[in-house]
Amino acid sequence: MKKIKIAILFGGKSGEHEVSIASALSIYRAFNRKKYELTLIGIDKQGRWFLPEEKACLGSADPMSVKLDGRREPISLVAFENEKQLFSLNPLAKKLAASHFDVIFPVLHGSYGEDGTIQGLLELANIAYVGCGVLGSVLGMNKATSRRLFAASGIPVVDSYVISYPEFEDNARAFLDHVHERFSFPYFVKPVSTGSSLGVSKVKNARHALKLFQNAFLYDTQVLVEQAVNARELECSVLGGNPPRASIVGEIIPNHEFYSYEAKYLDKKGASLSIPARLSASLVKKIQMYALEAFSAIGCSGLARVDFFLDRETQALFLNEVNTMPGFTEISMYPKLWEASGLSYSKLLDTLVELAIKRHQEKNRLKTSYHCSKN
Questions:
Q1: If pLDDT is split at 50, 70 and 90, which confidence band does 98 have?
Q2: Are residues 214 and 243 both part of a single domain?
Q3: Would 135 be classed as within a structural domain?
Q4: CB within 10 Å: which end of the chain, N or C, has fewer?
Q5: C-alpha to C-alpha distance for 65 and 59, rounded to whole angstroms
Q6: Does residue 222 share a domain with residue 164?
Q7: Which CATH number characterizes residue 120's domain?
Q8: In percent, how much of the chain has pLDDT > 70?
Q9: Residues 6 or more apart in contact with residue 297 via CB below 8 angstroms
Q10: Which of 190, 207, 227 finishes a domain?
């Protein structure tokens, strides 16, 4: 049987660079070598592309500590459709020049990877890739626009407000006065287009508000203000297909004040997972329904993890966000929810590759030229 050639793309110009490395190496180890031929492609924090040494990556006891910078000379990036190549013909890319990739697995979290940028490049290169397309990736990353679409689809979301950096810089004090009239303490400030809780802060009083907004603006040009909810944090995994499927529901139980970057990745005891979450059957069904509706509302395909808040006092359910390339280590919520739903980690990878190839074939049947028929 001919092996499927897969390139795993990881790292990237993102604050989630280290998380991407951990996800990618977990995926790399789990792929069935009898079915797939794998190539690791790393992108450093400056945006340079590398063919990293496999032993250097896999030999690390801590994937989060793997460094791409300077490991090898960077290779040039070219989107070349006919040969399905991503690289120019320099000495380091010779082994790739004679071949092509059947599928790219862009295990890139956050900016310049999960936000439609890489997806657009791969569309131009006419290469099949795992995960959401350009539109779903862009909308999934943008908390402000996606929430408007969720609300328009009848999916409940928490009250929020968006401010751009130029508006804030012009008159920060007036803006803060407006925010404090509309929102009660505590509330959250979130960069609009980041993941892994980067730049997210819980604002408890007016004294620290300015500093926390300034911190959020270090990560994005737009910031979302969101009313805090005393809530349970619930998550549901969605797998594309016709029709898409929703997993069982799990719960994140943070041991920090909220599920921050530190709680997710730096503190081994920062949070615990409850799979399945202790919920009524009717509530689970409702969450799964909203997850599938949200997946459709922003044009997702392939995969996504959909996150919810459940108000502890009122039991009101709110959709928080959709993650189009969620964490993918063996202990990450997305694959663990599918494993608990009966789909193993390796079979999940098989399915994602199959979905990528199928979607690529469907797109390639479309016409790219127009011929007027004569009657």
A1: very low
A2: no
A3: no
A4: C
A5: 11
A6: yes
A7: 3.40.50.20
A8: 82
A9: 146, 149, 150, 152, 153, 155
A10: 227
